[in-house]
């Protein structure tokens, strides 16, 4: 039996690469607004908010925010009803993104910074993460998927969208 092939994305936006600096957050949000022009405004704002949280986590908890690191943003529609956002950091943090369930004293002191993932978990259909080559600590890839109403998506989307 041949392995099942995953369907190719219906739409795939060119990746965007940002310096690992919180000062770039407005650029990340602005780029998403441009890339998602024509989509439902509520969806765009939800994705921008979640992207802000994920980008900030990349900068705060990984090597992306410590001199010269970068954050890679990817955006795709694997089907007509799904928008997938992902960010990848450049490693060096050693931590795994998670929403704390049971909190010890250390986790309670960090709780203020943990709300971003709760927000992503509640605003997206699903989210997750995986390590990029964990034996070399090349970073973490965090993704979230959002529901798209096909009737409220722009017409004429091309399979590959070049970004400026």
Automatic annotation (TrEMBL):
Q: Which SUPFAM superfamilies match?
A: ATPase domain of HSP90 chaperone/DNA topoisomerase II/histidine kinase
InterPro entries from the entry?
Answer: Anti-sigma-factor_SerPK, HATPase_C_sf, HATPase_dom
| A GO molecular-function descriptor | protein serine/threonine kinase activity
Which of UniProt's keywords are assigned here? Answer: Kinase, Serine/threonine-protein kinase, Transferase
Pfam families the UniProt entry points to: HATPase_c_2 (PF13581)
Where in the numbering of this chain does the Histidine kinase/HSP90-like ATPase domain appear?
21-130
Q: Which PANTHER family match?
A: ANTI-SIGMA-F FACTOR RSBW, ANTI-SIGMA-F FACTOR RSBW-RELATED
Q: What is this protein called?
A: Histidine kinase
The source organism is Nocardiopsis sinuspersici
């Amino acid at each position: 039996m041949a392995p099942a092939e995953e369907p190719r994305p219906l739409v795939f936006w060119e990746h965007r690469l940002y310096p690992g600096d919180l000062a770039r957050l407005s650029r990340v949000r602005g780029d998403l607004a441009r890339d998602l022009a024509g989509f439902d405004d509520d969806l765009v704002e939800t994705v921008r908010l979640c992207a802000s949280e994920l980008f900030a986590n990349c900068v705060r908890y990984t090597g992306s925010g410590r001199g010269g690191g970068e954050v890679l943003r990817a955006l795709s529609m694997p089907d007509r009803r799904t928008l997938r956002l992902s960010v990848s950091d450049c490693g060096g943090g050693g931590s795994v993104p998670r929403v704390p369930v049971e909190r010890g004293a250390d986790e309670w002191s960090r709780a203020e910074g943990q709300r971003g993932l709760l927000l992503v978990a509640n605003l997206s259909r699903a989210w997750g993460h995986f390590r990029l080559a964990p034996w070399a600590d090349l970073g973490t890839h965090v993704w979230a998927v959002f529901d798209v109403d096909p009737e409220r998506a722009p017409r004429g989307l091309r399979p590959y969208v070049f970004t400026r």
